[in-house]
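re: ur msg from earlier - yeah i can do the flavin-adenine dinucleotide complex, just paste it... oh wait u already did. ok heres what im feeding in:
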Amino acid sequence: MQTKRVLIVGGGSAGWMAASYLDAVLNYEGRRAVDVSLIESPDVPRIGVGEATIPSINHILAAIGIDEKEFMRRTEATFKQAIKFTNWLDNSGEGYYHAFGRVTPTPIDNAGLHWLRSDRSIPFMETVSSQPRLCEWNLAPQMPGKWDFGPKLTYAFHMNALKFADYLREIAMSRGVQHYLENVTDIDLHENGDIDALRTDAGRRLEADLFIDCTGFAALLIEKSLGVKWVDYSQWLLCDRALVMPVPYDVDYPGFVRPYTMSTALSAGWVWDIPLHSRRGVGYVHSTAFIDPEEAEREIRAYEGPHAERLDSRIVEFKVGMREKAWFRNCIAIGLSGGFLEPLESTGLYLSDLATVLLTEHFPFHGDMETLAFRYNRIMANRFYEVLDFINMHYCLTRRTDTEFWREVQKPERINDRLKAKLEFWRKKPVAHVDFEDQLVPGQPYTVARSSGDFADHRPPIDTGKLFTRSSYEAVMYGMDFLSDECREWYGDDRPQSGVHRRIVERVTLAPEKLPPHDLWLQNVVGMPAYPAS
Ligand SMILES: Cc1cc2nc3c(=O)[nH]c(=O)nc-3n(C[C@H](O)[C@H](O)[C@H](O)COP(=O)(O)OP(=O)(O)OC[C@H]3O[C@@H](n4cnc5c(N)ncnc54)[C@H](O)[C@@H]3O)c2cc1C
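and the outut:
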């Protein structure tokens, strides 16, 4: 089989994840199926955010063959077991966890239903997962030595985004990925509309069979050259800017490292709070239509406290939406060029990761790009819809009325129709595993083969629940007090106390003696420096 040439443009997280994953997965046992090259600009910086991940990151690290501890050392990574949402419901200091792991009682997982029928005196997540407690106690999800504490805890990482891309670059280049530090200046199109070659400011002309656009929001290939449209989602997700402020531990070290991401709602959006080895990263994601830049600056500094006076901040503008077709002709947009749905559930890197994994599974070794692209685009689009609905839900379930922003996000026109229908449905019948299904392949009803050879998809989008399943929906819906009125009506006021699953009780009881504090684990195992508490 002829070796295929893949040329990636862009050396951010998306570009280097794609380069290292494609090389690792498609070239194996001495077989050179693809020649991967990557070109990145020496002048256009990476976006430099994207520091919280979800557990799927473990797959891509393992597939590339990266040692977890080495990865943590090189990227200043800390563990992430959950996201804690604070002040999303009614701004009273309340909070809830969306934890990665939970027990699934067998043979039938009715934990959600049992909790709804109870007095809901214990937060839902705490009845099915030990991780909210472990997070409150700032414990690591790993033991210092060999693990002997029952089923492993599910975790992801926080990491330094720039160091992550650098680390992947080093790995990819050491394995033969060709690297060019040059600006792409021109794109040569074939008369059939495909991309033939890229030209650079170093006078080079680079040809390939497949081009991957990882140029971030610039979308140099997919949009500027091929004209594929961006589908805008700002009607449902109002935030369009982040004010990013690193907080070095030299300036403020709280005395612990949280093993979770904090997401705290402010007046016109929310703040992420992400711990690394030498700093926390905080960023105020907000809507410029509802807050002016000075006020946003004041708010993030008030969130951080008096030491914030000494800190610099920078602005990151973004747009939310997705590419109408991520794969068009012989070009695939991966990363921000393919779409972005604000970072509330840390899905940016995940979507790049998924795109790359899907590409390996649909790699056009045999030329028939249209059929492969149809299926690829369908799966990617469904996953974007899934993420959109889920993030949209965090906002629309709020009961906050204290600012114009929070009043706005609850309006019917700010809730997309799929989500509206789902929430209506789940008001009649609580969410269940079976509610997440979808399978569609070319040739089935709703797909039409066009004379051009590609397929038109006439079926409305349906989320697949492969990412945000019933577990995640329950975490957020019940964290946001969904169905509380209905429960009163259905089950009356005199309901039994919420029960905590036996395995959670056992785990939480033993955790303080089994699991080390997160900061100590990081210091002892992956070399995080020790800091005096401020
Ligand atoms: C505010 C914000 C917060 C986020 N937080 C998270 C998070 O917590 N978790 C998460 O998973 N994701 C997050 N994301 C998403 C995440 O940042 C991105 O998915 C990730 O960084 C991938 O970016 P990228 O590689 O597509 O683009 P970039 O990092 O912007 O890289 C673009 C690359 O293209 C190159 N380039 C541009 N023009 C040219 C040219 N002419 N020639 C050659 N090269 C060129 C640049 O040099 C650069 O190397 C966040 C995004 C934003 C906006």
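cool cool. The chain has a mean pLDDT of 94. ping me if u need the other ligands too
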